[in-house]
């Protein structure tokens, strides 16, 4: 938390946490960090700071369509020790991080195919992430909410001149794609430095990678060291995100 606090203490920085977790947990975990932006449930909710209200970034949807996935998920829970179902405000998630790694991965692939077939005519999306299968409303993603952040900053005439985005999940790929295209769409400063980083060396839309979370922490601490907590009041600089 100390590192995050030091980053957003510099008024030139905009810091966003983009998570699949629910907004109640995120509000509790990051309560000491008043000025950071948070997105919850992979982009379904977002808020710009602790004092702002949560905004829904998703369209109205029929949760009954999502509930159609629950019987299928229950079948895989019975067949996969260590798996579980989580009900979110925006969808259903089948977790298999506590299952046998090889078997859990095979079951996840099979479930993905099964659910895509069952829900083919419904207005829902079936996504595979890190140890999860998620069924949610269409039009909800980390990429869409990051696009909203860039657009809002650009409309406020504060286009970012430095962007660093780090993620370790398959669902972060949508975010990396938006970031790589943001420059050509005029959402960033023309000379912006853009770094999309995945954690661990693997196929990704991100151009860069960091070996592990320890390296991520080290890099953020280095950025915190060079951040300026006391900018001039007369200064209106470009922003880093």
Describe the model.
The chain has 241 residues and is α/β, with parallel strands linked by helices. The chain has two domains: 2-58 and 141-229, HAD superfamily/HAD-like (Rossmann fold, 3-Layer(aba) Sandwich), CATH 3.40.50; 63-137, 2-Layer Sandwich (Alpha-Beta Plaits), CATH 3.30.70. Helix content is 36%, strand content 22%. The protein has eight helices and twelve strands. It has helices spanning 2-9, 23-29, 63-67, 70-79, 101-118, 142-155, 173-182, 213-226; strands at 16-18, 37-40, 45-47, 55-56, 84-87, 91-95, 124-129, 132-137, 160-167, 193-199, 208-210, 239-240. Strands 1-2-3-4 form a four-stranded mixed beta sheet, covered by helices on one side. It starts with a helix and ends with a strand. 32% of the residues are buried. Residues 232-237 have low confidence and may be disordered.
CATH topology of the largest domain: Rossmann fold
Number of DSSP strands? Answer: 12
Specify the helix fraction band: 25-40%
Count the domains.
2
- CA-based shape: globular
Question: Strand percentage, roughly?
Answer: 15-25%
Largest sheet: 4 strands, mixed
Element-level helix/strand string: HEHEEEHHEEHEEHEHEEHE
Instruction: Give me the CATH architecture of the largest domain, please.
Output: 3-Layer(aba) Sandwich
Q: Quick one: CATH class of the largest domain?
A: Alpha Beta
The CATH superfamily of the largest domain bears the name HAD superfamily/HAD-like
């Amino acid at each position: 938390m100390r590192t995050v606090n030091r980053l957003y203490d510099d008024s030139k920085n905009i810091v966003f946490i983009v998570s699949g977790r629910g907004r109640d947990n995120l509000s509790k975990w990051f309560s000491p960090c008043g000025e950071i932006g948070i997105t919850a449930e992979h982009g379904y909710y977002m808020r710009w700071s602790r004092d702002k209200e949560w905004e829904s970034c998703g369209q109205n949807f029929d949760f009954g369509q999502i509930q159609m996935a629950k019987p299928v998920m229950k079948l895989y829970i019975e067949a996969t020790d260590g798996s579980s179902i989580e009900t979110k405000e925006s969808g259903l998630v089948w977790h298999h991080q506590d299952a046998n790694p090889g078997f859990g991965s095979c079951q996840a692939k099979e479930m993905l195919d099964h659910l895509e077939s069952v829900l083919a005519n419904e207005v829902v999306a079936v996504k595979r992430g890190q140890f999860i299968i998620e069924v949610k409303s269409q039009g909800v993603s980390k990429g869409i909410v990051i696009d909203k952040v860039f657009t809002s900053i650009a409309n406020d005439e504060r286009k970012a001149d430095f962007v660093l985005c780090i993620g370790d999940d398959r669902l972060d790929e949508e975010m990396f794609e938006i970031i790589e295209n943001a420059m050509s769409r005029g959402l960033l400063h023309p000379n912006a430095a853009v770094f999309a980083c995945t954690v661990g060396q693997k196929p990704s839309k991100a151009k860069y990678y960091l070996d592990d979370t320890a390296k991520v922490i080290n890099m953020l601490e280095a950025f915190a060291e060079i951040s300026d907590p006391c900018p001039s009041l007369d200064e209106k600089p470009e922003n880093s995100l």
